[in-house]
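Lecture 7 notes: from sequence to structure.
We start with the chain below.
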Amino acid sequence: MRRCLSKITDWQMGFKNLNFFLVGSSSVSRTIERSFSSNAAQVDQTKDNPVSDMLIDSFGRSHTYLRISLTERCNLRCQYCMPSEGVELTPKPQLLSQSEIVRLAGLFVSSGVNKIRLTGGEPTVRKDIEEICLQLSSLKGLKNLAITTNGITLAKKLPKLKECGLDSINISLDTLVPAKFEFLTRRKGYERVMQSIDAAIALGYNPVKVNCVVMRGLNDDEICDFVELTRDKPINVRFIEFMPFDGNVWNVKKLVPYAEVMDKVVKRFPSIKRMQDHRTETAKNFTIDGHCGSVSFITSMTEHFCSGCNRLRLLADGNFKVCLFGPSEVSLRDPLRSGADDEALREIIGAAVKRKKAAHAGMLDIAKTANRPMIHIGG
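Predicted structure tokens for the same chain:
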């Protein structure tokens, strides 16, 4: 621990100056899985912020985590997020205004939501993001305000965002090779993303989460290089299975399943150990002896976590989505602008939550189902 704290201080100072794939998994990976107790912590919602019936679905899942997409615009063109020809953007008048975002967020928080994540597009391209953060962080009952960003402009905006109440950060980065970064994102900017990671560490964010979508033939040769980032820095590297969305040319052959990624990590870092995860956690979390940071795996395709899902999504155009992979959406913007009061909005939200299915359809069926591009949904 002392070594890790020393390393963190050094970085602060330096800145200031698929199921069938699983059959072949190695015995080492299976041993690690068995060593983790399946009875994850069952922590109930605290009494001071009870969950209303509006947020409880027909399977008894309480939804206390709201992801809000602030914009459909982005300053990168990542291959797994946006089609090469781009996407048609929603006209600005049809996007939620700052006051509409805050009102709807307040409705969710007063009903039991205790975590909000800001997404996009790229949320930092929205000019009023600091004011949005300030107002959201002031909502009574909200315990965590987070952001998922590509990090291109984050470094210069982060000090102000922290002042406005931003609690935690996820930065998307799929390669540690600058030339490959330009290929994957269709833009330059690798150095700025790395600067943003260091800026977040310098400002005391711990951990700084780094999201890496693993794609066969593109970056699966860098898995252990990403794990090395956790050795001396308080970084949580999160390996994400490649998921199908409209326009990203998903193919099962591009998917690198969790078991395969884990096997690569275990061979290089045999001291990796499973942590105890909360029942609503999307990631399988691990520590490695001697590392300041940690490693996680998000296994949406090969080992889904739908039974503990507590997430809801509010899109930039005001549509409400209860499942990332489900095509169903309902507009909250339209009734809001038609003068609906809070009770009417709660009825619409509650009805949508009650319609949420027990689990997504499975990766092959998801790939055939019409859904929006990820840049419309929000990462």
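Points to note: The longest strand covers residues 208-214. Residues 2-16 form the longest helix (15 residues).
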